[in-house]
Amino acid sequence: MIAARIAVQNGLTTLNTHVKAATGEEVPQTILVTSRQQYGLPDDAVVFCNFNQLYKIDPPTLEMWCEILKNVPRSVLWLLRFPYHGEPNVINNVAAKEEHVRRGQLADVCLDTPLCNGHTTGMDILWTGTPMITMPLETLASRVASSQLCALGCPELVAKSRTDYVRIATRLGVDREFLAQTRAKVWKSRTTCTLFDVRQYCSDLERLFYRIWKRYEDNQPADHILNE
C-alpha cells in the first residue's frame, strides 16, 4: 500500500458471528416468540423491514419506501424504535443479537438504506434468508450491501437507480412466486457462497499476504495483486 499498489481479496466478509449467534433454522410458525404476532406484524401483510439506525434514512430513501408501500397492497414497513416521532409506524425495540437475527426472518423483504448501508445489519438479515434490496452510491459506506449481495450470488437485488430499486421491491411485494424463489435462493446461498465462510476467507487472505511477502523477498517491484 505504501508503494501505491493495491492487493485485492476475492470475496467479502465482515464481522461474522452468525453461526454462534443463531442456528439458522426456519422460524416455527407455532412458537409465539418467533411469530409475527409477537412483534405486532399482520400475518397476511407483505412486511418490508429495515433495522438500521434512523439517521441512515434520508428523505429520498423515505420517498422510495413510501412509493413501494403505495405499490404493494397490504404492505407495512417494519423499523426499529429510536425517536418517538416514528412510532406511528410498526416499530420494535432493539433486541438481543440472537432474537434480532431470528426475527428478521419474519419480514418478507429488507429495504436497505442507499446513503449508508446496513453492514453488520445486512449480514444479519441475509443470514435469515430474507432478500435485501440495495442501491450503491459513491462512498464505501453506500456500497457494502451491494458487495454482500454479489458475494451471495444475488446481483439481481442490486438496483441501478431509484426507479429500479422501487421496481425490484414492488415485484417482490406483489409476485409471491418470485418472492418465494428469491427467498429460497438467498436461504440456500448462505451456506454455499463465500459471504459467510470466514474460514475460507481467512485462508485466502493468508495466501494473499504470502504472495505479497514473496514478491518482497524476491526483490520484485510492487504491483497490483488480485487474489483469485
TrEMBL record:
Q: Which InterPro entries match?
A: OGT (IPR037919), OGT/SEC/SPY_C (IPR029489)
**Superkingdom per UniProt:** Eukaryota
Among the record's GO biological process terms, what is one? protein O-linked glycosylation
Extract the coiled-coil ranges from the record: none
> Which keywords, in A-to-Z order, does the entry hold?
Repeat, TPR repeat, Transferase
Leader sequence range is: none
Which GO molecular function, any one, fits this protein according to its record? protein O-acetylglucosaminyltransferase activity
Query: Could you tell me what this protein is called?
Result: O-GlcNAc transferase C-terminal domain-containing protein
- Species the sequence originates in: Ditylenchus dipsaci
Source taxonomy lineage? Answer: Eukaryota, Metazoa, Ecdysozoa, Nematoda, Chromadorea
